Amino acid sequence: MKFKTQSIFLCLLGCLFFGVAHSQTLEYTTIPLTNYLEIVKENNALIESSKLDIQSANANKTAQSLYRFSPSVMYVRGSWYPQKPYSPYVVPQSDTYSLSFTLEGWGKRNAREQLAQSQISASKTQLETTQTTIQTNALNAYIDTLRLALMADSYQNALNKLNSIKANPKLADSQAFIKYYQSATSKDLMFSALGLLNYSGDAIQGVPYPKGTLNYPIQKLNPDELIEQAQKNRIDVIALQLAIDVADKNVTLTDKNRNIDILPYVAQTRTPQYNDAGATYTAQNSISAGVTIPIPVSNYLQNADVVQASNQKLQYEIQLRDLKVQVRVQVMQAYLQYEGAVDALNTAQTAYDDAIKKPNLDAIQAVMDARDKEGALLDAKTNYLKAMVYLWRQSGNYAVPTL
Fold first, then answer.
1. d(C-alpha 74, C-alpha 99), whole Å
2. For residue 11, how many C-alpha atoms fall within 13 Å in the half-sphere facing its CB?
3. Backbone angles phi, psi at 290, to 5 degrees
4. pLDDT exceeding 90 applies to what percent of the chain?
């Protein structure tokens, strides 16, 4: 009886999971590369966060551009004496009003504004860096998915050709072989296509299906020109140059902050009419003014704040020097990788052309050979395209290839 109850429970549980699995239907949505990257640009969370950073930097600039008067008003009423020294002792009740404010040290406001403006430029460059990184990752994922889609089509085309051949044992083995790898490729395609959703937020309904080809002409590139272009246009180089500019503005602000602030004030005291010892005193109105001038003793005894700000700028300058050396190495490495991909593509293209122009006399073997060479050609095209994109990025070219 216990065994029967467990069996019923497992059966119901299996039905539940079966229903859940079938409720999660996955449908493809064809989307071209340009549309996909535009969706990524507009909906990726990291890119949106970088856009908000620019808004924050703009708001900060408005705040830093204001003069810091720090006005304050004070009111004093009195005086009252709980014990009078003698009698009669008259204490007139006076009202005192005062206004005090701050006059900032020379150059402080302008230095703050310049620093805030440079931070806006740095935030914009950070947005470009984030967009480039995310879109490049999305582009490579799209290329990989497109390769699988074209590979699945290749298996289907080979299967169609085999189906037109008269049935025999060898044909059945070849068909089974093709169907197995077609099925495996279809699963890989779904897995890779789902990965495209990682970059697009919630903007795409369904599973994105790539559209296009992997055909892109071989580029004739000059490594020296690429290195020169990289040292001018690479986002990380520009970002570090702007970091140096921000640090330089911070050095200026640190120096200006050592200028003293002056605190002037003005006060008015009103004393009403009163009588004392038979004498009548008329109402009085007095005005006083003054200024507080701090003595910056610590500024003459230490300069740690200036040294720290200057060293931060120097650190960025050292990093930029090393980055320009690294840029040269990275471009040369990417170029060597690109040349290897070009050679592999030419070899695969030649092998595929030979398989088509000089097919095997055995029709089944001819189809299988052509399919193998086509698969190798798709792999070579994928590697070439990704190597070219990588070389572009290393050399400061952020264009998107047309697929």
1. 7
2. 6
3. -165, 180
4. 80
User: pTM value?
Assistant: 0.83
Q: How many CA atoms lie within 13 A of 311 on its CB side?
A: 6
pLDDT of residue 203: 92
* 15 — pLDDT class (breaks 50, 70, 90): very low
CB within 8 A of 77, min separation 6: which ones?
Answer: 93, 94, 95, 96
Phi, psi of 100 (to 5 degrees): -130, 155
What mean pLDDT do residues 55-76 have? 93
Q: For residue range 201-214, list pLDDT tens digits in order.
A: 999 989 999 999 99
Best CA proximity match to 256, nearest among 309, 312, 311? 309
The Cα–Cα gap between 224 and 230 comes to 10
Assign 5 a pLDDT band (cuts: 50, 70, 90): very low
d(CA 154, CA 371): 7
Is the four-CA dihedral 112, 118, 123, 124 of positive or negative sign? positive
The answer to whether the beta carbons of residues 204 and 138 sit under 8 Å apart is no
The answer to whether the beta carbons of residues 235 and 130 sit under 8 Å apart is no
Is the N-terminal amide bond of 264 cis, ω within 30° of 0? no
Beta partners for residue 207, in sequence order: 28
Is residue 226 exposed (0-12), middle (13-18) or buried (19+ Cβ within 10 Å)? buried
Contact 390, 333 (CB under 8 A): no
What single letter denotes the amino acid at residue 88? P
For residue 12, what pLDDT is reported? 43
Q: What contacts 180, CB < 8 A, 6 or more positions away?
A: none
How many other C-beta atoms are found inside a 10 Å radius of the C-beta of residue 119? 23
